Fold each of these.
Amino acid sequence: MDKFMRVFLTALVFVFGTALQANAIDIKSITTDKGIKALLVEDYTLPIIAISVSFKGGSAQDPEGKEGTLRLMTALMDEGAGDLDSAAFQARAEELGLEFRFNISQDNFSGGGRLLRSEREEVFKLIKLAVNEPRFDEDAIERMRDAIRSGIVSSQKNPSSVASKALREAIFQDHPYSRSTSGTEISIDAITREDIIAMNRKILSRATLTVGVVGAISETELKIALDDIFGNLPNESAIAKIAEVEPVLGDDITIAMPVPNTSVSIVYPAIKRDNPDFFAAHLMNHVLGGGTFSSRLYTQVREKRGLAYGVSSGLATFDHASYFAAGTSTRAENRDEAIKVIREEIKRIATQGITAEELEKAKRYVAGSYAISNLDTSGKIANVLVALQTQNLGIDYIEKREKYIADVTLEDANRMARQFFSTKPTVVVVGPVVTQ
């Protein structure tokens, strides 16, 4: 597909997403003959199909001592399949105009992309090859291993990455969530081709497959395609059970690095996505530090004192854990004052709460921004369809979301502030040594 066509289609995808956003999204739940479940938004405005897939089992499934196995496997999924080596596979994808990427988190292995309707049969064949017959050639393994190792080395020089590593290890300790998704220099070198094949067989199954599709494809066509692509995968999941974990808090961790700025993270307990109080916590956080330019932290840290370019806070939610973090990056000489101001604002919201006016502004923003942030392209909508399933939100979540937000009371939001911030936090500081 030539460059002009790519640019043209990119513009059309934006128009397509806007058209879907402007109209009620008609979500259809389908089940294939082989039991694969998917959500579909059928739309023929443009000849484009967006697909998003997810399998349960992320980097938390990596064997101990071989952290980064799933990350390496993921990097190899488009490095050859069936009778196509890496160069041939990627040339064929380019010829078909396929844009498909695989990703991982601690809890999931996922993939997604978009394609032209006219090329769907050939594209689905290529995706089927990648899913069912990845080659995992030794030369490709070494190239991807080198690339990941290079990223690991680079991350060791990045204050934010160093802070994230220290934070994970401090609050999750010996739990799988404490490990890096990319592994370490030692662990990435310990991974063999047999480990990668075993991980592939472990993760990919129909039992944990979730699919979201948006665009120019019918229910019948999609059912046939999904059974053809995924129907030969095992119907039983082989992933290991991951234990629930509460973050261990209360530590003060300082790591010296010869860099211009200091990275600061302040961590408290939180709630998971399936908690009924999630939106109360979300709205409270919007007022504190999630609202960017309108938040209390932004006002106090940047606007009034000029201590940092940016500051934010938010909930980190996993399948088996959660935490709340506030953070910033600031010059070394501003470090102590920035930490003091952030902690003062957190204490103030815990003891005094937010106001009714702040809550109403947060509700308007959080309700109104959802479509712009999540429903403006077909690819994003496909991702939402997967999230509706993996997070058990329900097929009618988009319609009900505004009511969930509207139902949050001032007491609900302030109760979340008291609950989160009644514990001594873990504070992680990474940057240059400050001499007094």
Note: Residues 252-431 form a domain with the Cytochrome Bc1 Complex; Chain A, domain 1 fold (CATH 3.30.830.10).
Amino acid sequence: MSGILVVLEQQEGRVRRVSLEACATAVRLGQGAVSALAFGPGAEGLAEAVGSQGVEQLLVLSASPFDRYSSDAFAHAVVQVVRQTEPSLVLFGATAFGKDLAPRVSGLLMAGLASDVTAIEADGDDVLITRPVYAGKAFQRVRIAGTPKLVSLRPNVQPAGAGGGAPARVSVPTVDVPAPRAVVTGTERSGEQLELTEASRIVSGGRGMKAPENFRLLDELAAVLGAAVGSSRPVADEGWVPHSYHVGQTGKVVSPDLYVAVGISGAIQHVAGISNSKCIVAINNDPDAPIFKVANYGIVGDLFQVVPALTAALKAHLDAS
């Protein structure tokens, strides 16, 4: 077995950022030819995007039953492609898609899987993998016995390539999968903002916001920063914001360049979901709030005074520059 296969995730004809990061990571490992597998209508059009990351071949499954996501159909298809191409390593994104699909493929192949990986490096013909454990309090370095090795990469922790490569060569593998037992009949966007796992800047609010209407303060700050808006779990559970805003161990695990936590105390579940953020700014009126233990910068004060002042200052700075 040799080479690397990346299982792509696309939305409306666009490769998700985490898949591009996985493609670039596969190329950087330098362990043979890199291929990508894409599902769904318009998959053929992804050749340029993945080629820009150094992928040599794009395998396309766009006909029925792959026009809508089905856990069992997609898993059986990935297994057959793996058996045909014999890669030593298979990469997924650690998204809802990847977290559902990768364990199913692992089970069918009886192959080892390392999930939510934050770093992967070549070690001869093997790979050394780093992943968080104990809710992000520690990091574990592991190897996977046997081949193929399956890995799901946490979004926004590995850089994508600069681009410029030639489009990948497109081919259509022959697979025979059972009739799907369940399919996704439709999806609905919760809003127009960028998906949290792909956002480079996030502004999140917690119980300290006191009421759902006060999230407009965060919307205004996020607009100035070009950020997405998130929340702690209690806020989402109470219906102040959609559940898609929930950041934390049981929600969206994020790795932005900037994470602004407003009125969030810093429960361990929330901290686990933001531990890979490059810079954390906390705003809270309690100087003993646990969030300050993980924050790079902290502001102790009334968020209803601090946030508008911060928004105004940032806006004035941008207008002047």
Note: The mean pLDDT is 92.
Amino acid sequence: MSTPFAQDWDRLRAELSKAIVGHEDIIDGVLTSLFAGGHVLLEGVPGLGKTLLVRSLSQALSLDFSRIQFTPDLMPADVTGTTVVEEDENGRRFVFRPGPVFAQILLADEINRATPKTQSAMLEAMQEHAVTVGGETRPLGPPFLVMATQNPIEQEGTYPLPEAQLDRFFYKLLVGYSSREELCEILERTTAADHAEIHPVLDTDAILGYQRAARSVSIPDDVRTSMATLVLATHPGREFAPSRIDRYVRLGASPRAGQALSLASKVTALRAGRNVVTVDDLRGVVVPAMRHRLVLNFEAQADGVTSDDLLQDILDTVPLQGPADTTF
């Protein structure tokens, strides 16, 4: 029997599908991050609909939306806001002008084109859901979802995100090319006279309620042990690490990876109508939750080995304990 959460999930997918053709796995990943309370990094070449997806999501969720186009000359104050002096009949006074980060859904477009100083302005907002300007801390949201995009091809004039900031993204989703059938549908929709209208599905209270419901899902001890084993298996030289981890990985995943596995598994279980996480829930979230948390060495780059390849090695070789996908 379908639950209200699963029904609302399907309604959201249906509304987003009016604008986005295909990419069901990307949509599911974004929604998982939303209900888990995490941020998303979308990686793909230009023109694949990343920005359109974020705009469509804000329309379907009735949330405040803001966009920042990251460029090399962007300053931290352009993100967080600044304090200015205003003068009226009562004299001069300091007034805070909030920046675009004060939104519920923030699109950080081409985040790797900004300087490290500006990128660091996002760290506190993403981690603490607050911004400190002029010695005063101002809260953000809730909910507060950062969806950042980056182009993996054009690296001239870019500033790759440091590991500390990559680790603050809940999911990293790779946006690929569409199939021929999907491309034909895109051409039909985008060049026609009429455009589909996206209707709101959920509001702030509903989203926060589902976030609380997801956190209330329980995790059996053996599944939690499996989560810890998966994280440790990414550390070269540890007892759980496959041989290719020892060969190709310079730095393994942090405890935030385990937190992401836990919350993503809970959202997956809630969507399936269960209040207990299974090992199958865990398997399905490993790659998007951990692919950006492995630091590979030069040998991996020379051999064309990716984080996805190594995570699949872990899933194939490391035994995971826990109940199977059974309704409780």
Note: The radius of gyration is 21 Å.
